[in-house]
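ok here's YALI0E03872p, seq below lol
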Amino acid sequence: MVFKYIGDTLGLTPVLKSSWDVHALIIMRFFRLMAFGQISVILAQFFDAHGFSQDKTGLFMSLTLAGDVGLSLFLTTYGDRLGRKNVLLIGAGLMTLSGLVFFHESNYYLLLLAAICGVISPSGAEVGPFRAIEESTLAQLTTLEARADVFAWYTLLGSLGAALGALVGGWTVQIAQEKYHFTKLEAYKTVFLTYAAIGFIKFIASCFLSRKVEAPAEETEPLLANDQENATEERAELRNNIKKRGGLRNLLPNISPESQKIITTLCLLFAIDSMGSSLANFSWISYYIQRKFDISTGYLGSVFFVTGIVGALATLVGSGISRRLGPLLTMVVTHLPSSALIILLPVPSTVQGVITILAIRACTAQMDVAPRQAFLSAVVLKNERTLVMGWVGTIKTLAQLPGPYITGYLARHNKQWIAFVAAGSLKVIYDLSILSYFTRVKLDRDQN
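and the structure came out like this:
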């Protein structure tokens, strides 16, 4: 009874009762975010060790995100046709290849090419086609009642992986330098070798996913019909509609009019939030702290490990709050304090003060993630989820494009504090706007 109570309270019971595919997707995200977390601690310093300027580092991050837009857009738009399992395999292969190039090469343009064509996270956050495919699959494999808890643990283990990655990445560099007398650059490259190894492990794990992860027939077919005659008529109508749309609009997802209105508004608001996040991503925060206070990489990794653990555990609290307040209100009341705290990040004159702000912010920064995933999957129809989640992810990434370069430019001129103030302000605007608009939107439209 005690274990059942704990499992129900923490939302663990629905996850344990889920299929092997659900477990596999959650575990793969843990290792993927672990790899991303490793490089987030050292990416800006990696380019600094090469002698590249801060604005050139920011440009690299922005162009990497641009490459991620094209890759994610293609693989998520055609993900259900190519096969979700195949898309995950492609992504893992590109992740492995990118890590190997970063380990072996030092030329700026070769590194940029590997990052644009492959999978490299410039901020420690999710990149590539993985998340949209996985979230769509998880929504398909779980019931509405279990979905929030499954997404919460999916987010939790991802956050734990990112936190562990920051710890491992930071101490790998420090131990390589102090014990094995590696140069800074050699120590940083060791992290990318680990990154490639994790990508290969993820590739192997993806091979064991079952056919249940694939989209049902009605989601991969453009039309539904009870007989061949109706199907033929509907195909003709679809071709006419496509011709009417014409040009670049053929690339846009074909979703219901009501969903189009909802997704357009959501994309705009998510873009504002993402722009704020890109101005103060983990790589630039890491760079700012190490540059201002001259602390070791191992200590820095430990700081992000602790704040990451706090944020990961707070995710479970967010799931419980979501069951009581609903996903929308939970998104706002948990995200708003963390948004405001970014503005205060440049204020402390000691590293302890900055760590305190990061720790307090970590208490609520991740609470909105699982409710947001559940909210997004509930406001669109089942057969639209893969496309919509892919396009929302693409829009969010597009909005992030100028942010890293702007922060790099400000850092080069010793004005990085402006980026933190702008980031927090944009995220506060997002919180207040999404609450005011979506209060009236119905959830679970499939049942409605």
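fwiw The two ends are 36 Å apart (CA to CA). kinda neat tbh
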